[in-house]
Write a structure and sequence with these properties.
This protein has 2 helices and 12 strands, in the order E-E-E-E-E-H-E-H-E-E-E-E-E-E. The protein is mainly beta.
């Protein structure tokens, strides 16, 4: 498996302490190293850099750390994610076969370019080309799950309400 290292990038808009007040005035924080708390999603997110990793292996890394690849079910979270990944080219996210890792069915509610056609022209021998790749240029695509390697992926740990 590829060596994983935390991506160090420009994040002045995020609170360095990873602690925030929720709507009830209670402190919420990400107790996992390298994760940043997203208030509206009540989840901790981490952008991870690798030397190149498939979607399946990226998901395994997230699961081993108590989360999953990030699911993006609202316009607000999509806007947040696009800002979160702005210094990358593209990242693996928690979308496969038009279903988020949370179990929710994908619905195109975003104001971005979406192309989910189960085809990855660079990997025509791939039997599963339905894995989500979010581009920092506001494009969502599906690509090879088992063969294509990407440098970045976003893990998410959803916190209990």
């Amino acid at each position: 498996m590829a060596t994983i290292a935390m991506l160090i990038s420009h994040r002045e808009m995020f609170n360095a302490s990873f602690t925030h007040l929720d709507s009830f005035g209670m402190t919420r924080e990400c107790k996992h190293d390298g994760y940043i708390y997203h208030t509206k999603a009540n989840a901790c997110l981490r952008l991870i850099e690798s030397t190149g990793i498939t979607w399946m292996n990226a998901r395994t890394v997230c699961l081993e750390n108590g989360g999953d690849l990030a699911s993006i079910k609202t316009v607000e979270k999509m806007d947040y994610m696009l800002d979160f990944i702005r210094e990358t080219d593209q990242v693996w996210i928690g979308l496969r076969q038009r279903q988020w890792m949370t179990g929710d069915i994908f619905m195109n509610v975003y104001n971005i370019s979406v192309s989910l056609n189960n085809i990855d022209t660079a990997y025509t021998q791939e039997s599963d080309a339905s894995c989500g790749l979010l581009k920092s240029t506001s494009k969502l695509r599906d690509r090879s799950c088992n063969l294509r390697e990407e440098k970045y992926f976003v893990c998410e740990i959803v916190l209990p309400a």
